[in-house]
Q: What sequence folds into this?
């Protein structure tokens, strides 16, 4: 790329060459004039300069052919211009000295020398030539003996004035040249460092000018594009619209500006995104073309694409995210509505993914999800949309008039695609998935549908949970009955929430007695729902729903608080209730929810009862779930001073070694063993084993569901200390427990 100094030097060389050629031509004209004068006899032929003059005339063509461009900047080159001026002066003086009318000839001829000087020499050199001219004229008049003093003075004054004008003209030219050089430097600097590349294209589409900035921006060498057909630089996909745009700009009014976004090839054969601005300058005689500004927006386009990908794509798998998927579903519904075709939505959820993620780490889990995403993509057509909605949940959208049969085939392929083992870091992982399918059947634009993306996702979600409930590793098609079940659950949840807010729940208590004396030692708190329309409802009708919806956490917190407050009232009213304890059940959700320790501590502190008089019951199955976290929670509960009981012992995992790990105080023998303890030797043996285990581990044993005196006697004989059941009392209101306290 040419820099400003190079362009300035080129201007100086061209100006110097023109000045040298002009000087040579003037010298040639003078020498030719001398030859003509000598041949015509106007000047005596015996003058000593006659032969040199003739020789100079003959050498002029050769002098013009000298490599003057290469001589520029050399010492001989720099002196050549001045030498020509001196040579012109010498020739004029010689002619004038040989002619009686020489002074007149001198004055006229030397005017040409001054003009030659003022167009090429600095003002100070022109001043020197002017002084030489005047002095030469004065010396010439003295040499030839001119007697007309007035004429001499007049001509001398004229030469002096001409010399001054020449100096002024030279100074003005220098100022203009300096200003031009400054403008050229500024223009070239702007061109070199402009953010846009500029080309001028003629009406045939050929480039006849490119700005220096094209080198910096697109990598093309200076003038490399000159003569090139502009459309050969345009991406093939953009060529048609660019051709039409050129035609439009060429037909527009002079100076009209138009814009276009296209891709241009750079010098490395890559493609750049360009904002092209074109102005019609075909009418301008200096341009005669379309002036095109090419602004490189590749980085901006890449950033926009990156932001779009981050906004609408999942960073882990590269799939569409929930926002983009919902948008695709929305447009698919609109297209299906216009065409009267159906679409299908598939919700894919990995079975038991949490076990892999927690057991092998999130890094393995992420790589597993990426592999599953790749398998789903490979199983579908490019026109289908695959998305990751979050976690281990994927979604697929299939269009093109889907039927239930074709949707079932796609679902089966998706399930089968995930079944093959996945190898990660030497581990062979067997992963399965459940797929829910919802189909939107569109009849046409005359029969609009009320279903949207959210409804389709909801239906597919219901179908997916139906597949999981059936064992997983399968698919299920949505059935409207699923929605009805969902609405029923939603209504029940709403009723539960209202019951909590309005205080419709009550706590009943089932006494716990010492088997040997039937003395009341404690009560188990059991919640009931006093429904305003259906009356008293047992826990089996609402506890499972409370567990599923998470409402068991606030409900359990309320039961614990009410039980502690009731125990405090009994202790205040009956001295013999000082050793009575209250037992409250804890659910899995409560153990997993944050704030359990704080809730228990707050309930005990508010009621003002000893922590040792509060027992928390946990099922054996709960103890086996996430043992490390469970052990941590139980240790914090024991630190409060409460007692811990294992409910339904023997019906769960029966991993007896865990009893040494967890800080348990009481083992509750499940009713299934108690039912046959007096009649079945195996049940009696199992009950005896549990009692013996309790003695070995220094734990109390309590039998549940005692309904007959034989069962009570047999359990007492086996060594069981405490019991509860219908034989002693049913779960009852606090007032009935007070009657037992008074009897005690």
A:
């Amino acid at each position: 790329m040419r820099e400003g100094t190079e362009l300035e030097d080129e201007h100086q060389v061209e100006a110097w060459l023109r000045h040298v050629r002009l000087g040579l031509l003037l010298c040639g004209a003078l020498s030719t004039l001398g030859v003509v004068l000598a041949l015509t006899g106007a000047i005596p032929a015996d003058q000593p300069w006659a032969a040199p003059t003739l020789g100079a005339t003959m050498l002029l063509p050769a002098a013009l052919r000298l490599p003057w461009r290469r001589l520029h900047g050399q010492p001989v080159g720099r002196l050549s211009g001045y030498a020509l001026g001196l040579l012109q002066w010498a020739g004029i003086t010689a002619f004038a000295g040989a002619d009686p009318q020489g002074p007149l000839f001198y004055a006229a001829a030397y005017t040409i020398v001054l003009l030659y000087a003022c167009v090429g020499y600095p003002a100070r050199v022109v001043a020197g030539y002017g002084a030489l001219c005047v002095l030469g004229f004065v010396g010439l008049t003295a040499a030839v003996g001119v007697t007309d003093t007035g004429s001499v003075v007049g001509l001398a004054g004229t030469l002096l004035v001409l010399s001054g004008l020449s100096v002024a003209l030279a100074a003005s030219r220098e100022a203009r040249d300096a200003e031009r050089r400054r403008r050229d430097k500024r223009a070239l600097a702007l061109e070199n460092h402009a953010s846009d590349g500029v080309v001028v294209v003629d009406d045939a589409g050929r480039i006849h000018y490119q700005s220096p900035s094209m080198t910096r921006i697109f990598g093309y060498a200076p003038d490399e594009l000159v003569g090139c057909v502009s459309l050969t630089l345009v991406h093939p996909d953009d060529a048609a619209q660019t051709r039409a745009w050129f035609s439009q700009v060429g037909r527009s009014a002079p100076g009209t500006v138009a814009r276009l976004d296209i891709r241009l090839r750079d010098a490395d054969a890559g493609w750049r995104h360009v904002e092209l601005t074109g102005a019609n300058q075909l009418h301008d005689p200096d341009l005669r073309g379309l002036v095109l500004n090419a602004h490189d927006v590749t980085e901006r386009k890449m950033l926009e694409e990156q932001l779009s990908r981050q906004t609408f794509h999942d960073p882990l798998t590269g799939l569409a995210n929930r926002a983009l998927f919902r948008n695709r579903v929305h447009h698919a519904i609109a297209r299906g509505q216009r065409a009267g075709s159906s679409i299908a939505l598939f919700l894919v959820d990995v079975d038991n993914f949490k076990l892999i993620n927690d057991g092998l780490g999130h890094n393995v889990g992420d790589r597993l999800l990426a592999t599953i995403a790749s398998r789903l993509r490979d199983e579908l057509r490019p026109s289908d949309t695959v998305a990751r909605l979050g976690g281990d949940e994927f979604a697929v959208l299939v269009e093109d008039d889907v039927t239930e049969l074709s949707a079932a085939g796609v679902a089966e392929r998706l399930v089968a695609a995930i079944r093959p083992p996945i190898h990660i870091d030497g581990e062979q992982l067997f992963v399965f998935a459940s797929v829910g399918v919802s189909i939107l059947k569109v009849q046409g634009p005359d029969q609009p549908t009320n279903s949207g993306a959210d409804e389709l996702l909801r239906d597919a979600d219901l179908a997916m949970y139906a597949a999981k409930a059936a064992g997983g590793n399968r698919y299920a098609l949505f059935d409207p009955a699923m929605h009805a079940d969902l609405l029923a659950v939603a209504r029940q949840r709403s009723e539960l929430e209202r019951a909590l807010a309005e205080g419709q729940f009550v706590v009943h208590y089932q006494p716990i007695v010492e088997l040997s004396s039937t003395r009341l030692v404690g009560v188990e708190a059991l919640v009931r729902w006093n429904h305003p329309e259906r009356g008293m409802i047992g826990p089996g009708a609402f506890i499972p729903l409370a567990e599923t919806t998470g409402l068991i956490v606030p409900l359990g917190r309320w039961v614990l608080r009410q039980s502690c407050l009731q125990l405090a009232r009994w202790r205040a009213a009956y001295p013999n209730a000082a050793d009575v304890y209250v037992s409250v059940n804890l659910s899995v959700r409560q153990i997993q929810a944050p704030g359990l320790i704080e809730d228990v501590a707050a309930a005990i502190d508010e009621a003002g009862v000893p922590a040792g008089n509060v027992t928390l019951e946990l099922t054996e199955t709960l103890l086996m779930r996430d043992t490390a976290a469970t052990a941590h929670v139980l240790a914090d509960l024991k630190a409060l001073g409460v007692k811990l009981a294992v409910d339904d012992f023997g019906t769960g995992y029966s991993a007896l070694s865990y009893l040494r790990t967890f800080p348990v105080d009481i083992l509750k023998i499940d009713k299934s063993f108690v039912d046959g303890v007096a009649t079945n030797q195996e049940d009696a043996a199992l009950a005896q084993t549990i009692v013996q285990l309790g003695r070995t581990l220094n734990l109390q044993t309590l039998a549940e569901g005692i309904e007959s005196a034989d069962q009570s006697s047999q359990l007492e004989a086996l060594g069981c200390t405490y019991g509860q059941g219908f034989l002693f009392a049913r779960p009852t209101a606090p007032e009935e427990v007070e009657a037992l306290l008074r009897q005690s």
The chain has 26 helices and 21 strands.
